[in-house]
What we know:
It is a single chain. The protein is an alpha+beta fold. 29% of the residues lie in helices and 28% in strands. The chain is built from five helices and nine strands; from the N terminus they run E-H-H-E-E-E-H-E-E-H-E-H-E-E. A five-stranded mixed beta sheet has the order 4-5-7-9-8. Helix 1 (11-21) packs across helix 2.
Amino acid sequence: MQIRTATISDLDAVANVEAECFPPAEAATRESFAERLKCYGNHFWLMFDGDKLISFVDGFVTDEPDLTDAMYEDAAMHNENGKWQMIFGVNTIPSYRKHGYAGELIQKLIDDSKAQGRKGVVLTCKDKLVNYYAKFGFVNEGVSNSVHGGVVWYQMRLTF
């Protein structure tokens, strides 16, 4: 397996994996990914099995301490010198799940964020994933203000 950051040439693969991993109400659109890749492709961690994209983690950097729904929609809010690395999505195609690939990418994101001098990492997740992220040191801060996809999200933070 190989890990690297993204370029605009990864757009179709990223959009296809997202569509396979999230329901339509929660999945980012191809157009949204195009903007994200243009603004912060270096904050997409992609894992490949040969030429096949099997998993990725993405998000941007900001000085804002909490992840908001507006961040998903406005790639221009990215601040390369920001204090907090946000995680917008953790995706692994179903046939590759339960092998630790997403965990490898999350750890790479954490390591890179520390090396870049960030204050920490913030994400939101559904209740069933709170314990998973806690294994990486994330602390559950409770229900977020997000209404994304019409589901309940919990904000979790890893402070360095």
